[in-house]
Every structure is written in C-alpha cells, then in structure tokens.
Amino acid sequence: MKNFVFTGLILLFSVTAQAQIYKWVDENGKTQYTDQPPPPNVATDVKGLNIKSAPMSGNSQTGKTKNLSEERLEFDKRRQQTKENEANQQAKAEENKKKCIDAQGRLRIYTDTPRLTIPDGAGGITYLDDDARQRKIDDAKKQITTYCK
C-alpha cells in the first residue's frame, strides 16, 4: 500500500515538472529547438527557453475556471436535452410508421377494390368514379413517399 501511494505521488509531481527547451542555430543556418543541450561545436548563440506548461483544466471563462458543480449542472442540462430530443425523434418515427402503414393500406384498397364505395354524408353510400379513385390513389402515394422513409 505504501508503494502504491509513493508511486502515485511521484507520478503526480512528475506531471507538473518543467522541462528546459534549447534554441540554437546549426552550421547550416537552421534554427533548432530541442530539449537536449546543443552539441559543443555550436557557436555561443544558445538560448535556454522557459516554457510553462498549460494549466490542467482547459475550461476557462473570462480567465476564471468554472467550479465543478457548475460544470456538472451544465452537463446534466445537456444530457437531459439530448434525452428529450431522442424521445421526440422516436415518437415522431413511431407516428410516421403508423401513418405509413395506414397510407399503404388505403392505397391497396383503392387499387385492388373493383367497385369502391364511400359514405355520402347522408347515411348512404356512393360509388367512386375513375377520376376520384385516381385522386385518392395519388394522395395515398404522396403520403407513402412522405411517411415511409
């Protein structure tokens, strides 16, 4: 257990260690950036650069880091919104599936029934002529293309 704690502490402190970066110009005139000191035959134009590591937390808002409770609240809101969107999409898909099945059934009735009758509104029935049948078939096909995707 002591070894585990000791190893964890060493890893924690090694992450925040600073590294020295060297900038020097080689014999071809190219600028080199390395973490190793330049070779001894390089001219005295060697600069040691102090580069600070970035902060561990990448979330900042106007220079201040958000506290964890605010981040958690925002995450929960986004997750809830995503769940609601998925539920709405699933409900819409189910509704479209029902409308698709209904439109396919009506199209089958309009095309397969030789003498199609519809209620006339006064308690009786009337027979559809060919033009009315074709309009109903076209409407059903339009609904099928809309809802059956």
Question: How would you characterize this protein structure?
Answer:
There is one protein chain. The model has no long low-confidence stretch (mean pLDDT 81). The strands form 2 sheets. The chain has a 3-stranded antiparallel sheet with strand order 2-1-3, with no helix packed on it. Strands 4-5 form a two-stranded antiparallel sheet. β1 and β2 form a beta hairpin. It has 3 helices and 5 strands; from the N terminus they run αβββαββα. α2 runs antiparallel to α3. The protein is elongated and about 105 Å long. Helix content is 52%, strand content 13%. With 149 residues, it is an alpha+beta fold. It folds into 2 domains: 38 residues, no CATH class; 82 residues. The protein starts with a helix and ends with a helix.
Amino-to-carboxy terminus distance: 60 Å
What profile does the largest beta sheet have?
Answer: 3 strands, antiparallel
| Beta-strand content | 5-15%
Helix coverage percent: 40-55%
- Helical/strand content category: alpha+beta
Order of helices and strands: HEEEHEEH
The total of helices stands at 3
DSSP E strands, number: 5
Strand order of the largest sheet: 2-1-3
Based on CA inertia axes, which overall geometry fits? elongated
| Number of spatially distinct domains | 2
pLDDT averaged over residues: 81
User: How many whole angstroms does the radius of gyration measure?
Assistant: 37 Å
Low-pLDDT residue spans? none
